[in-house]
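Weekly puzzle thread! Below is a chain. First person to post its structure in token form gets bragging rights.
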Amino acid sequence: MRAAVTGPNGDVLVLKLLVDTGASYTIVPVEAVERIGCDTVHPISTVRIVSANGVIVSPMVKVVRFSRLGRQFRNVSVVAHTLPSGTFVDGLLGIDLLNRLGTVLDLERGTIHSRR
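Winning reply:
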């Protein structure tokens, strides 16, 4: 699904995110968060992500606005991590934001919508 992120410098990027109910955090490429003005050198924190290739330590940054499914959230924390090349998406929409969006996954119908 597509989502828009806005950085502290006001720039907006639209990204293609994979809905990943197994991901604790929403992940946005390092290049994208840096392009919209987020500081990955001095992040708000770092997180350890367990992947198929082992444990990765990535910076967590705040985006000014995150927009998806007709909803907007301000000052949202996302993990700055670039997925391997050849991936068909830019990042992952994790359970952190799926919960905030009130997301309902209807696997039988193959639909995703927001309760709120």
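Puzzle host: Confirmed. Bonus trivia for everyone else. The first strand starts at residue 2 and ends at 6.
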